[in-house]
Design brief:
Strand content: under 5%
Shape: elongated
Length: 327
Amino acid sequence: MTSARVALGVLQGLGALSFLPYPAILVANVMSMAAEGPRGMQRLIAALPYFLLSLYPLVWIALYIWSWRAISHGAAARAFTLSIIPLVLSVAGVVWFLQSSQADRDRRADEIRRKVEAENPLVYALLCSVGPERSMGATVLSEEAVLKAIAEAPDVNKEVKDYGSPLQVALMNLGCRVDGSSTEPRYAEFVKIVRALQARGARLTTSERRVVRNRFLLRMAALDGPVTTEQENALVWRIVKGELKSREPFALREDEVPLLNKPTTAHGTPLLAAFLTLDSKLAANLIQAGARLSAEESQDPAAAPALQEFFQHNRELWFVYHQRPAQ
């Protein structure tokens, strides 16, 4: 009888694992019952399954108590039957959840495909070039298939809501970090795709051209060799590698002061690198030290607006920037 009690305890313990997600399930049930829907009796009927599901811990506990009473009277078979019900129903619930989640993902993927293809099939092809990460399970398209889609596309500049222009999507596919390294093993293929789009006349939209990161990604796609920022300007390299940040006591090394306004091929000047890393406090420290955008950057459709937006939140530095000569 002792071994039977141990086995019963183990069985009930396994069934009790379904208590772990109960807080999340309860919140989801309450939200479902409170959601907009039919009124009156129809609303009560619609909410009933969620209400009953919210009570399952009480049912489980009742079954467990009943089973212990049964085993104490020598009815081991009845005790195990009662205790296995929660486990069986929990496993069935997990299977149903996984199947319904997959069905929801498939349905969502199909909705995205139909929506994006209706606006611009080329954008969907570019999403599929990466795979499930961006196309929600769609078949991954090869480089050749995407290049063919670009060559045959009637419009390489039509943007799609929530995704942007074809060139914007292709730039996002590069997976570039701010230091120029990439998380994408097919990086070289995606560079070819960006260049193929540009060869066909693809452009970023006006709002996309104002994004500093897009400026950087375009430079990365145009780069034929390795990133040479570290050799060109050690200060810029420290910024994009996260070694010089605003949250640390700001201090330039003596050998970095002459580099405050020296541009680099991929990342530009130190001030532009600070904008790229979205570190406005670092940008403020650099301006106080004498950093400026280069003449080319001052006319750039991304760098110039970034500087103006910075001054909107740091008006006192406008005078520092324009009155103090660059270092």
